[in-house]
Amino acid sequence: MTSGDGESPPTPGRPSRSRTWQAIPSTRRQDEESDVDTRNERLMREPQVREDGAEEPREWEVPYREPRALLVQREGVEDLTVPLYPDRSYVFGRAPESTVVFPNDAVSRQHGRLSFREDQRWVYRELNSKNGSFLGRQEEQGVVDPRLHFQRVGPSRDQVLEAGDVVLLGNGKSRITLLAEVPPEVEAGPRPRKQVSSVTMQLERSIERCARHHLPVFLLGKSGTGKTFIAREIHSRSGVEGNFVILNCGRLPQDTNALTSELLGHVKGAYTGASLSRVGKLYSANGGTLFLDEVEFLSSLAQDFLVDVLEGTGSLAPLGAPADFREPPPRFRLISASKVPLRQTALRPDLTQRLATGDFIILPTLEERHEDIPHLVEIFLHRLRVEQQYDAELTREAIAFLQKARWPGQIRELESTVRTVVAREAAQQELEGLARHRTLVTLESVRSYLQQRELGFGGPLSEPAQEEKRPSKEGLASVRKRPSDLTGEDIRRALEKHEGNKTRASVELRVALNTLKARMKALGIE
Q1: 49, 186, 297, 377 — which has fewest CB within 10 A?
Q2: Hey, which residues does 247 pair with through a beta bridge?
Q3: CA-to-CA dists, residue 150 to 70, 168, 418, angstroms
């Protein structure tokens, strides 16, 4: 079901959703009153006839040509290729906070957004820009105004896009081309030019090892150490056909039908409001990788469901599927991640055994690899340069200060800090009327931001991380109490720690979710 035990080696290639498309075909035809605007609706209604008299197949009968990357072309700026990930959305505009910034006055601050819809289609939505967006295919050379040959995209409607489509923004000098494959030369950032730490070298060897087998992998590391990035790297380097699908275990629905829809999908009309067919996460991962993020927060219902699926004893039919549903079960590589060791979670033993039957990677903290911080800063600045047009650098003193600071939020916090200090410094230049040029971030700029950040958090950065002291101080995770011994203070602290999330609080308290709810009711806790 999940691991590649006994299977032939994977064939190299980029992710493909062709198997999923065959397993759960998506309904392309939309009702007349639907607000979904696709250029193919007229093709569905009127068969096209070739010169020999035969009908061309309607486009909704042809497998969807899913794009894998974007070629971004901006006037006066080097071209940029951006890999597409279904778990992300991409905002295009002139505003610095956009995913990809277009420094052209003809482009609105928030011009358009590209996202992955539940029916496994990439859709573009025009965000009511001033000069509009235009959709078409690659035009012939020498065209004076390509917009004349393109179709204007209606505002606030989903426009389905495929590989080969081109979107023009504003005056047509800014464009996005959807690519069928990610070019092999595309890199996420600059490769290390300096020697990295020994723990990072060991981590790199572990990633390469896991990319060469199909066993399940369990990642253990603090929040912010890069577990999702590592899982994606293992998937990408393994060269499997299928997709990398993220399942955030702490956000799964508690209702059985909703959980079935999330994991196995649903057919159109399965419930009120189901206007589109949905491919579940398990079928989306078919032939690829299923990444269980924050697996320690799986609810009891989700654990039961997942064990049945992994063992092949549960139903794999999408919600609302006919009784004779007989599609092959999805097969995927399983990678799971947690902030705590498996034995310290409330997961079922048979599930933990499933997660632990393969390889393990223990992610180092940033404190263990502080000599890597200059290279990490270089990567973050590279991303800011190509995506958001910030041409910036940090002084040696500023980088040395970052190396000595403590980072309880790990790499995620370091990246956030670099992005913020660069944006603040660039904004200050604009405020002072200085021409936009290379931004130099000094030690004083970094220290000033971190001091303000410390005040916002209510404690100096030099103090020991509060999250490390909290368990023993509060007595929540260090000693397991019987449900009847849980006090109102215990429950309130757990709920406060997890921002009211009962599922996570039950894991913290090591009790079943229903038990926690019953105890809350008995103690009069809302």
Answers
A1: 49
A2: 292
A3: 18, 8, 40
- Reported as type and span, the H/E element at residue 286 is none
Q: Is 6 exposed, middle or buried (0-12, 13-18, 19+ CB in 10 A)?
A: exposed
DSSP annotation of 155: B
Structure tokens at 75: 């006037």
Which residue from 353, 429, 399 is spatially nearest to 3, judged by alpha carbons?
A: 353
Question: For the domain 368-457, what is the CATH code?
Answer: 1.10.8.60
Predicted structure pTM score: 0.68
Report the mean per-residue pLDDT for the chain. 80
- Among 360, 362, 361, 343, which Cα is nearest to 352's? 343
Helix-strand-coil percent breakdown of the chain, rounded to 5? 35, 15, 45
DSSP secondary structure letter of residue 191: P
Residue 28 confidence (pLDDT) above 50: no
- At which residue do the structure tokens 């009968």 appear? 61
Closest CA to 474 of 515, 505, 517, 519: 505
Cβ atoms 228, 246 nearer than 8 A: yes
Instruction: Kindly report, residue by residue over 325-344, the tens digit of the pLDDT.
Output: 877 888 999 999 999 999 99
Length of the chain: 526
Domain at 69-179, CATH from 1.10.1740.10, 2.30.40.10, 2.60.200.20, 1.50.10.20: 2.60.200.20
pLDDT tens for each residue of 495-511:
888 878 887 787 778 77
- Residue 487 has a pLDDT of 86
